[in-house]
Write a structure and sequence with these properties.
This protein is mostly helical. It has 2 domains: 58 residues, Wheat Germ Agglutinin (Isolectin 2), domain 1; 38 residues, no CATH class. A two-stranded antiparallel ribbon has the order 1-2. The longest helix has 17 residues. Bound molecules: zinc ion (ZN). Zinc ion binds next to helix 1.
């Protein structure tokens, strides 16, 4: 028998359980943390009105670049390479470490 599963998003601001509007969850960032919230049409309009009010006077900021490689990170990568070489699972001397090799190293240490 086939089953059909329907997922209904409910407005996070409503105690009455109104369905969220048809779009994706509304996302925003506050104090460096990312958030998502499901909102019905009324609360979505309220949310946008408030955000547009602040965005009008705010500065846009570029995404931060990845942190520079530190000596500690380089040493850890060298340790993982040495361990992988000793285990005979990976012998490439440089370049990006495969995530499977890192996961195997972390599982053993
Ligand atoms: Zn709502």
């Amino acid at each position: 028998m086939a089953k059909k599963i329907t997922i209904e998003r409910i407005c996070d601001m409503s105690v009455l359980g109104y369905p969220a509007d048809s779009g994706a969850p509304h996302s925003f960032m506050l104090d460096g943390k990312d958030y998502e919230v499901d909102l019905c049409e009324g609360h979505a309009a309220e949310f946008y009105d408030l955000m547009v009010h602040y965005a009008a006077v705010a500065r846009r900021v570029r995404a931060k670049t990845a942190p520079a490689r530190t000596a500690a990170r380089r040493k850890r990568a060298a340790d993982i390479r040495a361990w992988a070489r000793d285990q005979g699972i990976w012998t490439v001397p440089d370049g990006r470490l495969p995530s499977k090799v890192i996961a195997a190293y972390e599982a053993r240490h």
